[in-house]
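INFO  loader      accepted 1 record
INFO  loader      residues=315
INFO  predictor   begin
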Amino acid sequence: MADVDDRGQLLLVGALTLAVMLVALAVLLNAAIYTGNVATRDAGTGAGEAIEYENEATTMAQASIDGVDGDTYAAVRSNFTDSVTGWSELAHTHSGASLTSTNLTTVDMTNGSRIAQQTDRNFTDDNGNSTWTVAEDSHVRAFRLNVTQGDLASSATDAFQVTFNDGTDEWGVFVHSDGSGNVAVTVEDETDTEVGDGCTVDPGADDRVVVDITAGTVAGEDCPELRFFGNLSGTYTVGYVDALDGSDNEQVNGTYSLVVDEPTSSLVTGADEDAGAPTVSPALYSADLNVTYRSADLFYQSEFRVAPGEAGADD
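INFO  predictor   done
INFO  writer      dumping C-alpha cells
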C-alpha cells in the first residue's frame, strides 16, 4: 500500500509541476508578444518598416476620408472601405517580395456632415440671413474659409465673425481687413477680450487668403490665437455673425468648408442639402483602422484613428 501511495503522490507532484510549467510558458509567451508590440511602438530594432507601413496607411486614410463622397451614408462608408481595402491589397502585393505580410482594415466609422460653399458668394444662409447657425451642438474639423480681402470690413469692430459657443462660454473669430490691404484675424475670448495681437497677412496678387480655423493658420502661417478649442467644454455651436453690415453690404465673400460629427438627419444648420449654397451633405467625421505587419522576426498590430483637421488636436 505504501508503494501505491508513493506512486500516487509522485504522479500528483508531477502533474502539479507540469501545470506550473505550462502556466509559466504561457506567461513567457504573452510577455514576449507584449514586448514585441511595445518594441514596435517605440520604433525599436527591426520595427522601422512596420512603423513606416502604419504611417503610410495613416496618410492614405486621411486623404481618403476627405476625398470620398456619396448621396447616402451607405455610399460614403462603402467608398471609404473600398479605398482602404484597395490600398491594403496593393500594399500586400508589394510586401510579398520582402516575405512580409501586411493588412489594413476598417474597424469603425463616425458619420458626420460636410457644410460647404463651393462658389464665391457672401456668407449668408440659404434664406439670406446675415447671422445664422452653421452647426449646432457638435465638434468640427477641417474648417477653412477662403476669403477675398476687398470685401472685408476695415476693422474688427462689427466685422464678420465666426462664433463657437459651448453653452457657457463663447469665443469669436473676426475676419477683417487691417485698412491697409491685408487680411487680419482677431480672436476674442469668453469675456469679449482680444486674445494676443491677432494675425495679419498680405493676400497677394489674387487678393485671397485661406483662414484654416481648426489648423490654426492664416495663409499657411501659424496663428496661435486660433488655438483656443481646448477652452471649450463638450460640444459647441458654430455660428456666423454679421455676414452683412447694417445696410446689407457684404462683409465677407468667398468659399468655405467644414465637417462636423453630427449626421445630416439630426444636425441643426442653416445650410440646405438641396440648395445651391451653402449645402450640407453626408460625410465621415472620423474612422478607426487596424494595421497588421508580420515578418519572420516581428509581429506588429495597432489601431489608429483619423479625423484630419480636428479642432483642438494640437491645442
